[in-house]
Amino acid sequence: MTLMSKLANPPTFKPFRLALIQLGSIGANKSDNLKHAREMILKAASGKPDLIVLPECFNSPYGHVHFPVYAEKIGFKPGEAYDIGKSESESVKMLSSAAKECRTWLIGGSIPERDASSDDVYNTCTVYNPQGELVASHRKVHLFDIDIPGKIKFKESETLTGGTTTNFFDTDFARIGLGICYDIRFPELAMISARQGCQVLVYPGAFNMTTGPLHWELLQRGRAVDNQVFFSMCSPARDTTAGYHAWGHSMVVDPMGKVLCEAEEGEQILYTDVDPKVFDEARAGIPVTMQRRFDVYPDVSVGL
Ligand SMILES: NC(=O)CC(=O)C(=O)O
């Protein structure tokens, strides 16, 4: 499929129910993590969502030393059929069967992925349709390398490689753009997704106790308002016994910047009914999508 044919005709935006799983109990044992994630997906499905979302790095502890140890070969290529039966990834198999069993769309948070040919490790999100087919993926483009003296130092690039593509997928109710956590700090990515027709952007994420209080909500409301889209990040629950203390506070923001729902820090399933009326009203009332001045500055989405 060419990019132009993929970009044509975003689906008509229809009301849908979104479930965010702010997953807890993510420990050292991958099988236990997968078992618990599966149980929580089934639990979330009882609320009849159309789309379920898991957090960043849900099958392993979050830290650069862990990524190569937990990494799995996925081997997904956009536009090519993927045979789940032949997948080497136990996480992909679990996510596929859970999506199929629940008959829902599933954004499978992210997991460390080892590329089959280069051996490079990525932080990768995979997406499943209600038939359990793996239909899209996103490799975290911007690696989380920060050093705030006395507060937090983190260097994903010690073991991870950054992805090189922007990604979205089409459902029967919306076109949904993907990013992972630190990607939100780079407004170009969200802007490109919005220009490609995405009405909803979902970024599994795991902010921390330094950046979370200041930036988690601010960035989501900013990306939602400047692109007039629904924006959501799904975090792991906070575990103060873990090496990395996630902020939690999984959230959904509407195109006017209103926070529709927000978790606290513990394990929780959040449901939100996404209403396209707000999207239409925001764009009609504040028509920035038609007021851009590409005679003054370049359109960064051109050519993508
Ligand atoms: N964990 C991340 O990728 C990003 C983060 O915590 C932040 O940007 O702050």
TrEMBL record:
Signal sequence, renumbered to the chain: none
GO CC terms of this entry: mitochondrion
Record key words, sorted: Hydrolase
Keyword Hydrolase: yes
Keyword Hydrolase in record: yes
Alphabetical list of InterPro entries matching this protein: C-N_Hydrolase, C-N_Hydrolase_sf, Nit1/2_C-N_Hydrolase, UPF0012_CS
Domain CN hydrolase: 16-276
Gene Ontology terms: biological process: asparagine metabolic process; glutamine metabolic process; oxaloacetate metabolic process
Record-level Gene Ontology MF annotations: omega-amidase activity
Similarity comment: Belongs to the carbon-nitrogen hydrolase superfamily. NIT1/NIT2 family.
The protein's name in its UniProt record: Carbon-nitrogen hydrolase
